[in-house]
Design brief:
The complex is a heterodimer of chains A (281) and B (427).
Chain A (H helix, E strand, L loop, with lengths): L1 E10 L2 E11 L4 E5 L6 H8 L7 E6 L8 H4 L2 E4 L11 H11 L7 H11 L15 H13 L5 E5 L7 H16 L3 E6 L2 H7 L2 E6 L2 E7 H8 L3 E7 L2 E7 L2 H11 L4 E5 L3 H9 L6
Helix pairs in contact in A: 3-4, 5-6, 8-10
Chain B lengths: L1 H16 L1 H23 L8 E7 L4 H12 L3 E5 L2 H9 L5 E5 L3 H6 L9 E5 L4 H24 L1 H17 L5 H20 L25 H4 L7 H30 L1 H7 L4 H31 L6 H25 L3 H19 L10 H6 L4 H13 L5 H25 L7
Helix pairs in contact in B: 1-12, 2-10, 6-7, 7-8, 10-12, 10-13, 10-14, 10-16, 12-13, 13-14, 13-16, 13-17, 14-16, 16-17
Classes of the chains: A alpha/beta (281), B mainly alpha (427).
Chain lengths: 281, 427
Amino acid sequence: MIVMENLRKTYGPIVAVDDFSLEIRRGEVFGLLGPNGAGKTTLVHLAVGLLEPDHGRVEIHGLGPPTDPAVRARIGVAPQALALYEDLTGEENLAFFGNIQGLFGRDLPPRVGWSLDFVGLNDRRRDKVKTYSGGMKRRLNLAVALVHDPEIILLDEPTVGVDPQSRNAIFERIEALRVEGRTIIYTTHYMEEAQRLCDRVGIMDHGRLLAMDSVKGLLAAHGGHSVVVAETAGVEIRLDTDDPLAELTRLQREHELLRFTVESPNLEGVFLNLTGRRLRD
Amino acid sequence: MKQILALAIKDLRLLLRDKAGFFFTFFFPLLIAVFFGTIFSGSGGGDGGISILVVDEDQTEESQAFIQTLTEADELTVRPVARAEAEDMVRRGQAVAYVMITEGFGEARQHVFWGEPPRIELGVDPARRAEAGMLQGILTKYAVQGFQRTFTDRSRMQGSVRDALSAVETAPDMGGEQRHNLRRFLGELDIFLENTPAADPGGEDRGFQGFEPLRIEKKDVVVQRVGPTNSFAVSFPQGMIWGILGCAAAFGISLVTERRRGTLVRLRMAPLSRFQILAGKAGACFLTTVGLSVGLFMIGCLVFGVAPHSYFLLGLAIVSSCLAFVGIMMLLSVLGKTEQSAAGIGWAVLLVMAMLGGGMIPLFIMPAWMRTVSHVSPIKWSMLALEGAIWRQFSLAEMLLPCGILVLVGVVLFAVGVRLFRWSVAG
């Protein structure tokens, strides 16, 4: 379990994270959702020991703070920036980052091979990274985070600037990691990613945690009602409802329905209801 | 330790794959060493002397002999031309100067003891006054040499005195008293030359030694102690210093690049201390600078005949110089926030060091106060250490001062750099 208690981090007059407490369970995919500048990256850097909090504490699996190198070795990070050496090949990047994590000799090649296979880059292993497409670089960025077989994986906006095909490939890989029981912290400002991948989601804005629950729980608590939009002869009817099926049945009885749609609540609506603004404002 | 080595190998691999960086790190210093070595050796495919034009308006045996002397001089390249062409070429900047031997030169050379001296006209390009000054000295030297030859050879001098005696008798523009005095002086001189035995350096009476006003025995102090085998022994230490400077700048900037690209975040996630990560970078810089210095020296040794006075002391000089610049690299890496600012600040600092330390202009032509200021530049100590091991014939004790200063500079600046280093992981 990752425990964060009363975390606070400031940069001069700017409060990036303010009195933030959270527990992330072992083996869960935890999503941090918030607009750019909400403090997500600062929070995850505090969570994995890249930053020291001004106040509060972080503890990883009861072993100590992530600033301890031994604890940090259990964590893999795929930063938002593509942190790769472009003049090295994919294989050389993985071997180097494996080395600095303490993988040498016979232990190294199987992990490098596994990581390349996992992200589907085995056939490009000997090509320099600068020849990769954006999506391939993103996948390699993920592979580097996994090369030393970490228990906790931090994925900071892992699909930024990626085409839909590569995005799907990344989603599949993250789902495979979840099946393996790894703890994943996933930051994004794409609500559909959080909805698809995360067991629980925390919604952040201005450095504060506004709400945290499963996606279902958040939708139920803050998503508002479903909206049924029905079209009868020349008239459009919009109805807020908690039971769209019952409402449609009723409308069918009373009118001749030409067509209808049901708008379900989503995390975008949750964020709008919590902050009064849209996620990508 | 393995991790530090992995960090160093990664940096070396990246350096080797950056073609432009590789060129400026390895080949540029070599070019500097070869270029300056060639210039100062005078073997650059040219003549190695000052090119001058010569106009002979006297057309006598004396003037032709003088031109012949100038033509044979090492310091000069002589081209005979007509007066108009000479003036035109100097005016256009195509020649440093012309030397015009005016009419009457030959006759004046014969009248050593009276009348006007022989004259030549020196037309110079005003933009090249330094070379013109040198040329004036060279011409005076060869003019005096002519007289010296006459006055150190008894038979030639005697002939000259007897010719002068005859000329005194017939000279139309000479007063009675002067004629009388010269007749008497030259007559006595002739008797003196006649009666003085030939030169015998080993004898009790050493005989006629000639009238030599000054004999200059040129002794280069370092040459006396072995000295540089050739000009490349001087230029290769300079090339090595520039190579080390280039490496320090390149590695300093690479640390800023790692910070910007986010790879430092990844390095920081490894179970390594800040010191270990920075030591890896420092190790790569150290290995590269040592490898570069050794490589350059090997080329100097095998191709240009540069031979060290002591391989051990050369190793000591290289290691201490490289340590100093690893420290400088570390400090430079914390001065700039972006690659551009790091490169700008880094090169500005390094170039000032090079200027003060004699990396650009030799220290001996700097004013005294500048030579004092040069003590603050590690380049000065680095040059001294490398030259000490290659051709100044320093002893181990003499090497301790420059090498000690360099190691101290390296350790202190590395510690300061590590202390000021920021990961810059902003949220």
